[in-house]
Specification:
Chain lengths: 113, 112
């Protein structure tokens, strides 16, 4: 089982460049999420998609856009990268059933110079 | 706004000792989760606590939930080196839709 797959795993950008982080899940989950993880700050929600065709802002959406391409795929785009966006990005999807736990991808480590 | 606070943030302990990690949250919640993260790795689900008084145990870890006190604890019994990791609690609120709010994480180091 692949679970939640993120690409790329590592990326270095220059300030002002754009890029897209890709995420796909094969567990038939309705909800998908993008979090960023910074030292001492836990995980902060950037955007989420409760179901196919919907997206909503999380705590820290500025500088990001998302696309829920279909039920499996949820991408995160940085239009003009800034050093403050240097972070580890995690995609997650959520079970439909009552427990509602998140399943995470391996993470994408992004450095903006 | 829902706030989730963990303490301690850093914990260094000897093998064989017991300790508790605390997770406090600021508003009512219907579900609480504990996750483990190894360095450079993803987050792994440990426990899902769904009701007041819920207690879950797996090996040397036991998690409990007191919704009236807005407090969850993760108790470590007779720690071993393999438990060294960062532990996160995460809280779900019905009114927040599908969202989970995470604590800052507790970095646990178990020394031989």
């Amino acid at each position: 089982n692949a679970g939640v797959t993120q690409t790329p795993k590592f990326q270095v950008l220059k300030t002002g460049q754009s890029m897209t982080l890709q995420c796909a899940q094969d567990m038939n989950h309705n909800s998908m999420y993008w979090y960023r993880q910074d030292p001492g700050m836990g995980l902060r929600l950037i955007y989420y998609s409760a179901s196919e065709g919907t997206t909503d802002k999380g705590e820290v959406p500025n500088g990001y856009n998302v696309s829920r391409l279909n039920k499996r795929e949820f991408s995160l785009r940085l239009e003009s990268a800034a050093p403050s966006q240097t972070s580890v990005y995690f995609c997650a999807s959520k079970r439909v059933v009552y427990t509602g736990e998140l399943f995470f991808g391996e993470g994408s480590r992004l450095t903006v110079l | 706004e829902l706030k989730v606070e963990q303490n301690p943030l850093f914990l260094s302990m000897q093998e064989g000792k017991n300790y508790t990690i605390y997770c406090n949250y600021s508003t009512t919640s219907d579900r609480l989760y504990w996750y483990r993260q190894d360095p450079g790795k993803s987050l792994e689900s440990l426990f899902v606590l769904l009701s007041n008084g819920a207690v879950k145990q797996e090996g040397r870890l036991m998690a409990s939930l007191d919704t009236k006190a807005r407090l969850s604890t993760l108790h470590i019994t007779a720690a071993v080196h393999d438990l060294s990791a960062t532990y996160f609690c995460a809280v779900h609120r019905e009114t927040s839709g599908s969202r989970l709010t995470f604590g800052e994480g507790t970095q646990l180091t178990v020394n031989p």
